[in-house]
Amino acid sequence: MQSNLNCADSTCAFNKSGNCYASHIKIEGFDAYITPETYCDSFRDAHSFNLSSFDDHSSLTGTQNISCSAINCKYNFSGGCGASHVQINLENDSCETFQAK
Ligand code: SF4
C-alpha cells in the first residue's frame, strides 16, 4: 500500500516499511524557518509503546491526516498540509518537505 506520507524513522512504533500507521500526526514548528526546527510530535518509541493494531491498513496515514503548526511553511493551510508528498526525516523526525514562505 502506498501513501503520500513517508517517514525515515524506523524506530517509531507507527512506522512500517517507511509508511506511517498513526492515523493522524501532529507536526510542530510554530517558529520554524528551516526543516530542523520542525518535528513530528506523534513519534512514539517502538521499544516502549505497545501498538496492538500495527497491521491495520485502515490507519495508513497520508498528508490529509497531518495537523501542522509550522505556519511559516508555504504548504501550511489553516493548520493542514497542502503538500502533494511529505517526507519525515530520521534525524529529529523533522519535516523534510518544509519550505519557508
Ligand atoms: S510540508 Fe509544511 S505544512 Fe506540510 S507537514 Fe511539513 S512543515 Fe507542515
List low-confidence stretches: none
**Protein structure class:** mainly beta
How many strands?
9
Beta-strand residue percentage:
15-25%
Radius of gyration: 13 Å
Ligands, ions, cofactors: iron/sulfur cluster
Helix proportion: under 10%
Order of helices and strands: EEEEEEEEE
Q: Assign an overall shape.
A: globular
Q: What composes the largest sheet?
A: 3 strands, mixed
Q: What's the total helix number?
A: 0
Distance between the ends: 32 Å
Mean pLDDT over the full residue set: 93
**Tally of individual domains:** 1
What order do the strands of the largest sheet run in, or round the barrel if closed? 5-4-6
What does this molecule look like?
The protein is mainly β. The protein has one domain. 0% of the residues lie in helices and 23% in strands. The chain has a three-stranded mixed sheet, with no helix packed on it. Strands 1-9 form a two-stranded parallel sheet. A two-stranded antiparallel sheet has the order 2-3. The protein is globular and about 40 Å long. Bound molecules: iron/sulfur cluster. Iron/sulfur cluster (SF4) binds at residues 27, 29, 38, 66, 68, 70, 73, 75-76, 81, 83, 86, 95, 97-98.
